[in-house]
Amino acid sequence: MFDSAILCYKGGDESGSTEAKSGSGSDLTRRKAWHVATDVLSIVGPAGLDHTPNHLECPACDAARDGSDQDLDGGMVFQLASTLWLDMRKADVSDGGVAARRIRATTESSYAQYLRSLNLFFGEIPLGKIHRGNLKEYQRMRLNGLGPFVRRRRPHEEPRALTVSPKKVNQELATLRQVMQCADAWKRELEVAYKPLVEEESEAQRAMQPDEQELWLHTAQQKERWRVVYWYSLLAIGATLSTNEMRFLRLGDINLYQQTVTVAGAGAKCTARRRTNALLTADQLWAAEKLLERARMECGCTAPQHYLFPFRNRKYSWDPLRPMSTSGIKREWQEVRDASGLLWVRQYDLRHTGSTRNAEDNMPDAVRDRRMGHRPNSRMREHYTHVDAAFQRRAYEKMVARKLPPQAASAGVVRVLDRYA
């Protein structure tokens, strides 16, 4: 509409031509176009400045440019530059209208975490003075928890080396690169010399075996304070939900009547992860009901927009409008790990476990992808399906049992193996 209005304005005569005085339909069209163009030109930009028609030599756009990445330069120390960079990235562009952000809240949180670690090493170094030797030393010290990375994890603990994975180091240095590029300080020398660390696939077990899953759930039922871990585990495994997807669930996302749970909003990592999963078993539905009851009775969550796992301000105070932190049930979780002996189990491993159980039950690939929030035929299906020797043995036993009459199948694995020996 803006372009057409400008064209009509240029083609018309404001003072009134012979055609305009005739009062024809085209005259009315031109008059309306003139008013539209005038309205567009009156849009106020930054600092109360007006936009020009074609935005050439536009004072409003120039004011917006002056508050952009040009504020960063190579002479700034990293601590100041990183603060300005993050402020520009997370700026709210709604201007009082529709709510809009340049980055998601979860992305902002990740950037803030990376910058805190980077500032321990690069904080007082000007961007233009950072060289390839700094990058190599950061990789070495960060990876092994040396120098500034020997610190307290919590105030009451003794300082110790805080080691991280190669993937974490790469993510932090990628953020450093973005900050330096905004200041035109990431030169060709750094581009050529910087080599990210190799991110080797972890050999740690990620999905619980059926007997381990049974042990985990049985242990979580033993104490009243562990029940939240039990309900959490049942729902996360059954609906294949990640840690963030569980944290950001709201009361309105669980529909007991339709027996569904919906992943939406900040909890969804991407568009494909926004989905509605059916609660397929009575245990899953019961766990969802108990978590809703806990949220209402213990945490004071009553409205649909309140979080299922709200943020705990103090020991007996909850904020229903904030999701719990990543350590919201950490104490109870660690107690269940210690009691069960499954010290390696993370909250995110429940998603791996649920996906592997679905594969063992021969759930169609299309349905598994949908429940996981993956695009069709995604390579992530293999990432979340852990086919070990025990998996293969169980799949073989199920395959053989389907081929045998019920009496033979019920005789046990020994007779099945004897028959095929």
Architecture overview:
The protein has 421 residues and is mostly helical. The chain folds into four domains: 2-64, no CATH class; 72-193, no CATH class; 210-387, Orthogonal Bundle (hpI Integrase, Chain A); 389-421, no CATH class. 50% of the residues lie in helices and 6% in strands. It is built from 20 helices and seven strands. The strands form three sheets. A three-stranded antiparallel sheet has the order 3-4-5, with no helix packed on it. Strand 3 (254-255) and strand 4 (260-263) form a beta hairpin. Helix 5 (78-89) runs antiparallel to helix 6 (105-122), helix 7 packs antiparallel against helix 8 and helix 11 (227-239) packs across helix 15 (349-360). Mean pLDDT is 80; it is low at 1-24, 28-42 and 412-421.
Summarize the structure.
This protein has four domains: 2-64, no CATH class; 72-193, no CATH class; 210-387, Intergrase catalytic core (hpI Integrase, Chain A, Orthogonal Bundle), CATH 1.10.443.10; 389-421, no CATH class. The chain contains 20 helices and seven strands. The chain has helices spanning 2-11, 18-21, 25-41, 59-66, 78-89, 105-122, 132-144, 166-182, 188-193, 210-220, 227-239, 243-247, 282-297, 330-340, 349-360, 365-372, 380-383, 389-403, 406-409, 413-419, and strands spanning 150-151, 160-161, 254-255, 260-263, 275-278, 310-314, 317-323.
Key features of this structure:
3-stranded antiparallel beta sheet; mainly alpha; hpI Integrase, Chain A; two-stranded antiparallel ribbon; 421 residues; 4 domains
